[in-house]
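W.,

You were right to be curious about this one. When I first looked at the sequence I had no strong expectations either way, so I just let the prediction run and decided to look at it fresh. Below is the sequence, 197 residues in total, followed by the output.
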Amino acid sequence: MDPIRLIIVAVGGQGNLLASRVLGEAALAANVPVRMSEIHGMAQRGGVVESAVLFGDVESTIISDGEADVLLGFEPSEALRAAKKCGKGTLVITNLGQLPPFTVAIGKGVYPDISASLGLLKQRVKKVIAFDATGMAIKAGNAMSLNMVMIGALSQTGILPYPADLVRRAIIDTTKAAFRDINLKAFDFGFEAAGNA
């Protein structure tokens, strides 16, 4: 199969690594070759966490600038920061729920104008799906299920090399029992949101 290069960007604590694991487990269940890597910035302090998940026959886990097939952004300014990884054929799925960095809170930084920035991004990629995934996670029962909302949206696009049912199964097998129902509900909210985008 042709490689599918997915990059996931988030702020520490948003569940990027669990989302990568769920997607990887689903790939293994489908006998799809998968490679993953992570970059932990200052994650413990709310810094960026970036994961690369590559499906298919690839030799490296590095996604060079312009090569991402999909950019999944759990926080909109982090999605914008990673835009250099996108090319004309990239699908961008981003949460609109903002989590400004500490520097903005103390007046040492400026949070970008997300609406204007997404407008510019839409001009240079294949498609942008942007929605309030944080609100959907809260509606599902826990703000921490944001990651499941996002992989639900990703699964709905049909770009993954396996069906959404395998992702649901991986959520059941990978997440703690106390959070399974909430996570599945969050997944379904994301799946529906992307279908309406």
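Here's what jumped out at me. The radius of gyration is 16 Å. And, maybe more interesting for your project: The CA atoms of residues 40 and 49 lie 5 Å apart.

Coffee later to discuss?

I.
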